[in-house]
Amino acid sequence: MPKGGRKGGHKGRARQYTSPEEIDAQLQAEKQKAKEEEEQEEGGDGATGEPKKKEKSLDSDESEEEDEDDEDYQPKHKGVEGMIDIENPNRVAQTAKKVTQIDMESPRELSRREREEIEKQKAKERYMKMHLAGKTEQAKADLARLAIIRKQREEAAKKKEEERKAKDDASSAGKRLQSLSLNK
């Protein structure tokens, strides 16, 4: 196949060529359609049935009226959504909240995962406090094991001390014997 895929396109369909007259007719139809849309926008009524937003002004009375119009304003629906009336009682209409309406001081409800995570952390902290106080079973077992190890180490230290004393006594006794045998 040549570079660029020039051969083998259109999957078997015959190619259709548009004549220059048809192209001119299409362009004129598009221009005419654009003019009609501009005239409708300038006319003000708008054939779409959606209320037009008023231009913003600095007057406070008109800005209050704008806020009321904004609440009644419904956004353009996508696809066939606007054509079909939905009677679902469980469906919650999404409303855009303004920054002034959002209450930042009220406590936010935690999700289930967040609640469980906080409960888990609190339980872990409680367990650690009890463990450090020696009230848990694991802490009691640890303390018992440590007591056994201390006893073993004390016994080993006593035994080592006794061996050292015995060695010192034996070496001092050997020196005495040598000194006595030299003196004779």
For the record, give the distance between the C-alpha atoms at the N and C termini, rounded to a whole number: 121 Å
Q: Tell me the radius of gyration.
A: 47 Å
The dominant shape is elongated
Pick out the low-confidence regions: 46-65
Structural class: mainly alpha
What fraction of the residues are assigned to beta strands by DSSP? Answer: under 5%
Mean of all residue-level pLDDT scores? 77
Helix content: 55-70%
Number of helices: 4
Q: Summarize the main sheet.
A: none
The strand count comes to 0
What's the SSE pattern? Answer: HHHH
Concise description?
The chain has 184 residues and is mainly α. It has helices spanning 20-43, 60-72, 112-133, 137-183.
Describe the fold and architecture:
The protein has helices at 20-43, 60-72, 112-133, 137-183. The chain has 184 residues and is mostly helical. The N and C termini lie far apart (121 Å).
How are the SSEs ordered, and which strands pair?
Layout: H1 20-43, H2 60-72, H3 112-133, H4 137-183
